[in-house]
Specification:
single chain, 395 residues, alpha/beta, Rossmann fold, 2 domains, four-stranded parallel β-sheet, 44% helix
């Protein structure tokens, strides 16, 4: 029982708040402490021998501490779910939730860390100083464009996996779902016209992984239309993406313009797409409205024009849920003591997820359930193999 358990709380009786009383996680000892002998082994004087061994050979931390199986879930609270900049204190319930998902679905221990700063340099320096306590860093709910620089610079400075889940977890699951949607509709990636609305952290990451997965005709839009280099209002991240997409295909204009005749639409914007624009997509269209809680195209509308529909919600078929990816990705990375998470590892995770659907593939089943016990092990195995192939595995 925690201290909070015995005290009434303002929202008593609400099942959501009742579940969160006292938080959603705790630390549990893995060793017995039943008497003086146990205490002398787990703490002083016995622990000093282990400390000395690690001091003499820092690699011993991989054998005699929890570090190699533990990830820091780090946020500054600036882009939490669909709530936005709610600050570090209010972000803690989400970070706790992420930590318990790591444990449940990947067997990975996780510690939520909410930082009381939004300064890029302070976040980077803080994480670098915390890093010796962890086997990996999961960045979470940090707003764009700062999240790009924070992740890139941490990757440069740390020799452990650094992964911004809002970007790459979403991208892995979206690609897995799209692979199966293309298979179901008889399309090939290289012949498929894809439109993404939203050029924030998730939209940019999804665009990049789709390119890596073989998509060639890709248009990415923000509030001002298609990203292309002739625009003078692009951030560096958007400009780099424009050079890989519209600058290659020549597509310009508004979201409505590029949806006309498009095979697939992926929404990561939180906006609303008018029904008349959806109606002009190609036959047997694919629509992923991933904004939560309100998809860019409501499934009831999407089904009027699309053969395959997915959302980010759990109350409709084909949920694009990051929990399908990040626990297995870190499990696989930890199993081979990977120094980084590569593009090859992400693609391997997506393909492993897609393959799990197998012969059950249908319009309402293009992605496995998070509760499918095969998911975590399949992703972990694929990621570990890709880490070895990419030369970042130490085991």
């Amino acid at each position: 029982m925690t201290a909070a358990d015995s005290r009434p709380h303002p929202h008593a009786g609400d099942p959501v708040f009742d579940l969160h009383v006292g938080g959603k996680m705790q630390t549990v000892s893995t060793v017995a402490l039943e008497g003086p002998d146990d205490l002398s082994l787990a703490y002083t004087p016995g622990v000093a021998l282990v400390c000395e061994a690690i001091a003499a050979d820092p690699e011993m931390t991989q054998h005699y501490t929890w570090v190699p199986n533990t990830v820091a879930v780090v946020t500054d609270g600036t882009a939490v779910l669909g709530l936005g900049d709610i600050g570090p204190a209010a972000a803690m319930p989400v970070m706790e939730g992420k930590a318990v998902l790591f444990k449940q679905f990947g067997g990975v221990d996780a510690v939520p860390i909410c930082l009381d700063t939004t300064d890029t340099e302070e976040i980077i320096e803080t994480v670098v100083r915390l890093a010796p306590s962890f086997g990996g860093i999961n960045l979470e709910d940090i707003s764009a464009p700062r999240c790009f620089e924070i992740e890139d610079r941490l990757k440069e400075r740390l020799e452990i996996p650094v992964f911004h889940d809002d970007q790459h977890g979403t991208a892995v699951v979206a690609l897995a779902a799209l692979v199966n949607a293309l298979k179901l509709t008889g399309r090939r990636p290289e012949d498929t016209r894809v439109v993404i609305s939203g050029a924030g952290a998730a939209g940019i990451a999804v665009a990049k992984i789709l390119l890596g997965g073989g998509i060639r005709d890709l248009a990415v839009t923000d509030r001002k239309g298609v990203l292309h280099s002739s625009r003078d209002d692009l951030t560096p991240a958007k400009r780099a993406l424009a050079e890989m997409t519209a600058d290659v295909t020549g597509r310009q204009g508004s979201l409505a313009d590029v949806l006309d005749g498009a095979d697939a639409y992926l929404g990561l914007s939180g906006g609303t797409v008018p029904e008349e624009d959806v109606a002009r997509m190609a036959p047997d269209a694919i629509i992923f409205g991933m904004a939560n809680p309100t998809p860019e195209v409501h499934p009831d509308i999407a089904r009027r024009y699309a053969r395959v529909v997915a959302t980010g919600r759990s109350d409709f078929p084909n949920q694009i849920n990051n929990v399908l990816a990040f626990p297995g990705i870190f499990r696989g990375a930890f199993d081979v003591r990977a120094t980084a998470i590569t593009e090859g590892m992400k693609l391997a995770a997506a393909n492993a997820l897609a393959e799990l659907v197998g012969d059950e593939l249908s319009e309402d089943f293009i992605i496995p359930s998070p509760f499918d016990p095969r998911v975590g092990p399949a992703v972990a195995t694929a990621v570990a193999a890709a880490a070895r192939a990419d030369g970042v595995a130490r085991l």
